[in-house]
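Tutorial handout. Part one gives the primary structure; part two gives the three-dimensional structure as tokens.
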Amino acid sequence: MRLIQRAAIVVTAAVALLAPVAAMATAASASPAGSTARAVTAAIRVTATIPVGTDPVGVAANPRTNTIYVANSVGAGADKVSVISGRTNTVTATISLGTDSTPVGVAANPRTNTIYATNESDDTISVINGRTNTVRANIPVGNDPSGVAVNPRTNTIYATNAGDSNTVSVISGRTNTVTATVPVGSLPHGVAANPRTNTIYVANTSNSTVTNIGTVSVISGRTNTVTATVAVGIAPVDVAVNPKTKTIYVTNFLSDAVSVIRGRTNTVTATIPVGGNPEGVAVNLRTKTIYVVNVLDNTVSVLTSCRRTSSRL
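Part two.
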């Protein structure tokens, strides 16, 4: 399960490094709809390499404090979250989450300066105070918690339980308690929230009712019920949302494609070919550009939402 989460750290790094060339990526994506554009030729360079713990997997950023949080999952330096200053690119703190916790997913609530880490081995969510870098609570959830997302407007946290429970735990950020458990599809992993519509999207990697076809569960944040189930590609693993356009992007690991879902109708409006074994996905809201990590190719596909084309880096 950690393989699926590993791409999150690559995606975030890609967004930080590729944002300056987003305009060039858009210009390069000038081929007809549904085709793959030629690669962007802009130079991309690594601005820093920051040592953290062992087997870093999940990553999240608090834009208000310019702080980054990295989950270190296994090994000698594991079971910890590294805190990085975005100003100096140095580790300013290391937060221990407990022995054999195996953190994999991380999310931040910028409004409350609170960080949430999913601990795969002990089936908990660690709640971290971003001001003091201390663990405030450990919340029991379902089996093998994996992905985690936050709706900052409602101060609600959503954690996918990828074990045999096949559920999403709904957590109140005010009380640090589970307020609901929502059944979803098989092997839920990636999760994303649209704070504008109070809607949550969950990528279910396996679907026991439709052979080889994965699904996305659409959850109402108001009722904590699944309002729609959208069939996508094979083995969907991650999901990202553009709240402004109400568009959802899903990476299909075994289809080598990204499914584009219209949030108003919960229907797939496009399927975009990308590189081999796409995992992590992220959206740059300012440029409406989508970045997809392709594990097999060691590439990042850059998708421009206006033309539905892609460039591979």
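Part three, for discussion. The CA atoms of residues 190 and 197 lie 19 Å apart. Residues 1-44 have pLDDT under 50 and may be disordered.
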